[in-house]
Amino acid sequence: MNIQKILHTADRFSMFAGKAAAWLIVSLMLVVCAEVFKRYALNAPTAWIYDVNNMMYGTLFMMCGAYTLSQDGHVRGDFFYGSMKPRTQAFLDLVLFVIFFLPGIGALTWAGWTYFHDSLAIHEQTFSAMALPVYPFKFVIPLAGVIVMIQGIEFVDDAARREAIANAKSIEESAHQRATGGGKSS
Description:
Radius of gyration: 23 Å
Order of helices and strands: HHHHHHHH
Shape: elongated
Number of domains: 1
Number of strands: 0
Distance between the termini: 56 Å
Structural class: mainly alpha
Number of helices: 8
């Protein structure tokens, strides 16, 4: 199995997980609308809706992390980063990946698994009038961690590496021309 195939499989899986989880928005909206209707029109609020809302939103938030990473959609502090040369940006990305991403997502996955396992062992439930199981929701924590870790670990083949370096050099040259006023007539 070649590396490109593994990368495409990881991307497709992240895309599927993110798009599937995105449908939770529709469910969440329907649950909230139903609760608002019941509360204000029928004067019959439900006690368990708050817990369901939190679990659905948390699942949505966690499961869309890998999709967002695959689309390069996470927020960066571009104040300094945007003014750096592409080579410096790549070096900073690598350093931050090794120092923060790998240990952070690894810790999230490990602690999430322990958190889920403890919850499952006691069959943890919510404290509302209609006790809902919590452990399925807690399983989403290590699951999302694994999916983000898979998406975050990328191998780049030689052709893609050369293309990325050529693009970075092109961007750097055009930025240098803009900074020095090259290519403009006075």
